[in-house]
């Protein structure tokens, strides 16, 4: 795996980013396992494990996982997966923990509560107001 820690970018402590990355991978695996059991289907443990993230900088590796799933996701589930995948990509490119809208650092407490968070609180508020279903 490439080390992204040496990149000069506005980003959080790489060791902290690594913690969140692991948290995201666990969350993703747990979500997939939960969805599979909800549908009475099965995903092999290998499918749902973090093995698929040996090359997080290669987006195709993640797309393959989705293609392998033997069930379809509803909109909310796939939005949740998308959010996790997008957050994992940000850990790979060194922009994790920075609000995707305004660029401020997202407080670590907020990330701990929801590691897939892409926006600071005020941008999230704005986003939810303008994208209410
Ligand atoms: Zn923001």
Describe it for me?
- The protein has 133 residues and is mostly helical.
- It has a domain of 84 residues.
- Helix content is 56%, strand content 0%.
- It has 6 helices and no strands.
- Helix 1 packs antiparallel against helix 4.
- It is globular.
- The N and C termini lie far apart (39 Å).
- The site of zinc ion (ZN) has 8 residues, from helix 6.
Work out the helicity level.
55-70%
**Which H/E pattern describes the elements?**
HHHHHH
How many DSSP-defined strands? 0
- List segments where confidence is low: pLDDT < 50 over at least 5 consecutive residues: 3-8, 48-52
Question: What is the number of helical segments per DSSP (H or I, 4+ residues)?
Answer: 6
Quick structural overview:
The protein has 133 residues and is an all-alpha fold. It is built from six helices and no strands.
Question: What are the SSEs and their pairings?
Answer:
Elements: H1 14-38, H2 45-48, H3 59-68, H4 75-93, H5 108-113, H6 121-130
Helix pairs in contact: 1-4
The structure holds zinc ion (ZN).
Zinc ion is lined by residues 99, 101-102, 104, 119-120, 122-123.
What attributes characterize this protein structure?
133 residues, mainly alpha, 6 helices, disordered N terminus
């Amino acid at each position: 795996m490439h080390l992204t820690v040496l990149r000069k970018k506005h980003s959080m402590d790489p060791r902290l980013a690594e913690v969140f990355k692991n948290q995201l991978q666990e969350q993703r695996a747990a979500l997939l396992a939960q969805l599979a059991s909800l549908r009475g289907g099965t995903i092999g443990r290998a499918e749902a494990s973090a093995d698929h993230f040996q090359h997080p900088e290669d987006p195709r590796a993640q797309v393959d996982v989705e293609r392998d799933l033997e069930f379809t996701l509803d909109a909310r589930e796939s939005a949740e997966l998308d959010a996790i995948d997008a957050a994992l990509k940000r850990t790979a490119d060194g922009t994790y923990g920075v609000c995707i809208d305004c660029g401020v650092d997202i407080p670590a407490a907020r990330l701990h509560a929801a590691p897939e968070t892409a926006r600071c609180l005020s941008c999230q508020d704005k986003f939810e107001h303008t994208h209410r279903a």
